[in-house]
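Hi, here's the filled form for the chain we discussed.

Project: internal
Contact: R.S.
Residues: 467
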Amino acid sequence: MSLTRRGLLTAAAGAGLAFGGSLGALFADRATAASPAARGYGPLVPDPAGLLDLPAGFTYRVLSRAGDPLRSGEGPVPANCDGMAAFRGGAGGRGGAGSGVRLVRNHENRTTATLRVPPVAGLTYDPAALGGCTVLELDAAGRVTAERVALAGTAVNCAGGRTPWHTWLSCEETEDRAGTSGYTEDHGYVFEVDPADPYRSGAVPLTAMGRFAHEAVAVDPYRGVVYETEDAFVEPFGLFYRFLPERPLGGPGSLRAGGALEAMRVPGLANLAVVDRPGAEFPVEWVPVPDPSAAVTPVRLQDFGRGGITHAQKLEGCYWGDSGVHFVSSYARGSEGSPADHHGQVWFLDPVRERLRLDVVFGPDTDVRLPGDSPDNICLAPDGGLMVCEDGGGAQYVFGVALDGEVYPMARNADDIGRPGAPEWGEFAGVTFSPDGQTMYVNAYQPGTTFAVTGPWHRGTRPVRPA
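And the returned structure, exactly as it came back:
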């Protein structure tokens, strides 16, 4: 895999947000990735149970499996575990030391899902939709004490983002309308989920934030602007948006007050995919979205007037850091109508200077065993670097990225090396850490499984010399 990058992206956490950190280089070159024994926490050790391979000294616990009974008695644990965030226990997610953790977890269920999110009165938007969110309550020892539905009747809940007021914004990655697929309501919205009290947030679509194939969001903790990515993977591709709330930083429920939705335009650049020079900067403009509800025409197809609008293929992760927004374009494929071929880009938007900078480009390569094919969910690691879920073909890994840019394997699904009887996992998703940084939580998308990984995180990610 070829990789071009320029410098180090620093991302400082702000205003209590748990996303931020140092991006460094999201992935390293072939030589770095090819020597996992000399990186991070050491080589991965095959799991005798055939589930999850981790470095020596690390252990995992299975917290939840799709199909097992929810502890609430509401039905079975839903399938397709995706985006996730960890909050402190206690009122409003602000519990003190020893108060435990709440995990809020998306379920990216389409109409074909075999294990739906059970509909619950007061928490269901569209009874015909099978997706939503569940919340796991963990005590101070990491034991699951409760598991319940937090949002139901939504569709294709992919990723999202946390807010400065300790709630989760769950994103529907679809544009389906009422009357299609049996739905009784329009879909393609963002929903706010309060992990401490899901009934307080309910199942209310934040319609002013637009109706499109949402992927992830990031909230500016100083100005309250919400940035949104659109994961459209067919031409015309998606857009990058900002939402200007009527009540910025207003706390739980404040986004229901509405606001203005705008799309990013880079003058003279029709598609971000064609840029291949790290460090390239562009001025940006923000254009009002004519019809955020997409009542007749999908947003990305609407008339944005003279100058048009700027598209990008498969916009994925989005997070706040370094006083700006980092966002991921997962990949481009010329065979799918893209004007370029690459395995992904990382962009940085400076909202004060109104400048967009390309920081990382992943060059095309067919060896999907190396990181770089469709980077997706990302989160801050204990050392200030990142954990990255790879969503590509072949082996599925969680990779760590140290502050110096070195890549190391942190977890591997056990079926990728042909172990008899190992589950046929899907991608990893929803990687996140406990507020104290001592436990990594991550989902296997399919069969839906939530893991808790503990170990000597204090060792950091200094290179480990092979014996």
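Let me know if anything looks off before we file it.
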